[in-house]
Amino acid sequence: MKYPILYKLVCVFAFILLAGSVSGKKPIKTLIVTGQNNHNWQVSNVALKKIMEQSGRFVVDIAVSPAAGEDMSSFSPDFAAYQLVVVDYNGDSWIEATRQNFISFARNGGGIVIYHAADNAFSNWPEFNKICALGGWEGRDEKSGPYVYWLDGKLIKDSAPGPGGSHGKQHEYVLNARDEVHPIMKGLPKKWRHATDELYDRMRGPGNIQDILFTAYSDKSTNGSGREEPLMFTVNYEKARIFHTMLGHAGESLENNPAMQCTGFQITFLRGAEWAATGKVTIKVPEDFPTETRVTFRLDYK
Ligand SMILES: [Zn+2]
To answer: ThuA-like domain spans which residues (predicted)?
Structure first.
């Protein structure tokens, strides 16, 4: 039997409506900034893009800077064209116009994710350090701000002198939730075991953490600080929504990349990124999320 054209059109229209309500939302326009890092950025930016796009919630462009030591004057990403900027960069200074554009993006309420070694970057750029709240290495010391760590049920600031930023040997460790009501945290377990990764410790900076989400104990037996370290938090900076995760040291290849193949890394990254972009979290906590004793992987980043 032949269907009349109007009937077909109505069917197509209904399908579009239904598809729209199932996915529910327009994908979040995202820019990953990379191109220089003391880490394997050629792996990390691809892994992050896969994690984000395969979730169905993000569409991702990549801005690759010139190589270290090259002329940076042409590097000027159009931050304002995006809802979300993921910083996967630790390298040469940006030109003043690029810095100003990034600060304007933040001040105007942009969403930002500070990912792993991005908080090593730009130790001499005060506004960037406020966007990170905490940073490490690159000459950071007591002039950068206090050490911040979890003690007796709260974050404390410790102005003792000393270098900022270190980590012991890579190992599996348990993340401890410090918030149950933040949209990123709702439904996540109070404790979950992360795959082998660095555990950043002795970080210091302005310390303008807004909500502390997860800490982990940096054990002296793995050459850590002996403190409960803030590893995932939001940052209080102007009108920006900023999610900072210190997890996710990139491996040697997409296939051998346990810290980023960890289900817990991927899901917390997605939820933090969605919150930074929109202020809400719709990405579900899946059945295979790690438990306190069991690490789980999504080897194909989905
Ligand atoms: Zn690292």
So the answer is: 31-262
